[in-house]
Amino acid sequence: MPTYFCMSSGDRLAAGQKARIASEITRIHSEITGAPGFFAQVIFQQVDLGDWFMGGAPLTHETIFVYGYIRTGRAAVDKTRMIKLMAEAVALAAGAESHRAVWVYLNELPPRQMIEFGHVLPEPGDEGPWTAALPLDDQAFMQSIAARPAAADAPKSSFRAPSGHHLTRHDMSARPRPDHCAGTSAGAPLSLIRSTRNLAGWVALAFRSTT
User: Fold this and answer.
1) How far is Cα 13 from Cα 100, in angstroms, rounded to an integer?
2) Torsion sign over Cα 35, 37, 38, 39
3) Quick one: which of 80, 93, 79, 88 has its CA closest to 18?
4) 31, 47, 168, 170: least surrounded by Cβ within 10 Å?
């Protein structure tokens, strides 16, 4: 569902850094929105120094640009929190010299104008029933993506987030999160996707809330 393009100049990002950035973007998006991690994709693009301009002049300072496409229907406060956390996580994973180096934009698309894994996407909050209604082979394919091992950590950076501490995996889990997503307009039971990590990696668990 979410697609994030991460652009950098030349060979600025090493393979390990790309893997860590992709893992962190996926984790943050999943934990804030409740959507399963196997929907997320992160695509890296390298731009030649002579092809990147800012203020009408060739780029001369470090910049990593993350542009994300997500489904409409998320709360504004969640989207703001998400891009702030992503900016911090990308800066740490990339070993950025300053928080100024990372830019993050979000753009929204109506779910009914998107097809993934061969199916039109559901509204936010309807992922559970949508996943359960898919053919079993499609469900198995998506679960196989979720079960892949997580990316190895990239080298640590000396950059510190504006809050004064390094962003870690535990930062998100320590924050309170809503117990469920919004219900459907027809008043159907609320649905929720939660992700949990086991020894094999992230496995998405889709179920209907009883509330």
Assistant:
1) 17
2) positive
3) 93
4) 170
Strand order in the sheet with 64-71: 41-47, 3-9, 64-71, 102-109
Residue ranges of E strands in 60-161: 64-71, 102-109, 115-116, 119-120
What CA–CA distance (Å, rounded) separates 50 from 57? Answer: 10
Q: Is the pLDDT of residue 157 over 60?
A: no
Which domains does the chain carry? 3-208 (3.30.429.10)
Please give the average per-residue pLDDT across 158-173, as a whole number. 45
Query: Do 164 and 157 touch, CB atoms closer than 8 A?
Result: no
Q: What is the pLDDT of residue 137?
A: 94
**Residue in 7, 8, 6 with CA at minimum distance from that of residue 22:** 6
User: What is the spatial distance between Cα 101 and Cα 8, in angstroms, rounded to a whole number?
Assistant: 10
| Best CA proximity match to 64, nearest among 1, 2, 11 | 11
**pTM listed for this prediction:** 0.69
- 77-80 long-range contacts (CB < 8 A, ≥24 apart) are 78/32, 78/33, 79/106
Q: Which residues pair with 69 in a beta bridge?
A: 3, 107
